[in-house]
């Protein structure tokens, strides 16, 4: 059974989400404040974390950082009453994979959870390639590990999915729209800005310290991964 951590101080919202998820076959732990969320996240392995932004003791941003330090790749969905672009960007920068503005429809939350969990569990059958190598960049698709020049690179779930998608289409220019559809797999209300933000994150981690750049932009067309 897949296990989800819900960190939310509004008891009503927390319990409704817990109930809905349990009805859909998930095992759910609820933390009603940041401290409890932190200790649960530290002592359990969750398949996914739902994080409210405004919480007593530690806010969602702090918690997200803590979770990322412990387990790089667990998908994190942030919940918040704030819907500004800056709030979204901050959430993404701290490693959240998705962002839902309150009040939200439970079905939408469920749909997003399923996208993340389905992808985490069924990535390999899409391709028989288990290792992709581009110059000195190596993607181990079984272990979901990325190294460059032999050095391990820590990526969030979304960063990994984006890199993996570009790597599977090595050398081909992929439009932002295709990336939004295929990598995010949802109606993308945040707009394609977020893809630029993610490309910047990836560049920092994959290319910044290396002379040979692998991530390329074709202006007005999209992005591609190539050793050229
Ligand atoms: Ca709250």
TrEMBL record:
One of its GO terms (cellular component) is protein-DNA complex. The modification 4-aspartylphosphate is found at residue 52. Residues 3-117 form the Response regulatory domain. GO terms for biological process: regulation of DNA-templated transcription. The keyword Phosphoprotein applies. It holds the Pfam family Response_reg. Keywords: DNA-binding, Phosphoprotein, Transcription, Transcription regulation, Two-component regulatory system. Residues 129-227 form the OmpR/PhoB-type domain. Residues 129-227 bind DNA. One of its GO terms (molecular function) is transcription cis-regulatory region binding. This is Response regulator transcription factor. It comes from Chitinophaga fulva.
């Amino acid at each position: 059974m897949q296990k989800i951590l819900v960190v939310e101080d509004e008891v009503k919202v927390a319990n409704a989400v817990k109930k809905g998820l349990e009805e859909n076959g998930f095992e759910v732990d609820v933390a009603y404040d940041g401290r409890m969320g932190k200790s649960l996240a530290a002592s359990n392995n969750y398949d996914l974390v739902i994080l409210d932004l405004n919480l007593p003791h530690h806010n969602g941003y702090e918690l997200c950082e803590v979770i990322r330090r412990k387990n790089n790749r667990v998908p994190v969905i942030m919940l918040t009453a704030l819907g500004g672009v800056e709030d979204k960007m901050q959430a993404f920068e701290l490693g959240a994979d998705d962002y839902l503005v309150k009040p939200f429809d439970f079905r939408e939350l469920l749909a997003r959870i399923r996208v993340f969990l389905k992808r985490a569990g069924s990535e390999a059958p899409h391709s028989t390639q288990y290792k992709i190598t581009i110059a000195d960049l190596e993607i181990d698709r079984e272990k979901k590990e990325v190294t460059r020049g032999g050095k391990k690179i820590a990526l969030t779930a979304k960063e990994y999915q984006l890199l993996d998608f570009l790597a599977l289409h090595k050398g081909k220019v992929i439009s932002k729209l295709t990336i939004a559809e295929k990598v995010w797999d949802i109606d993308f209300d945040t707009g394609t800005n977020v893809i630029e933000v993610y490309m910047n994150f990836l560049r920092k981690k994959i290319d910044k310290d290396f002379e040979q750049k692998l991530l390329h932009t074709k202006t007005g067309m999209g992005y591609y991964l190539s050793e050229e």
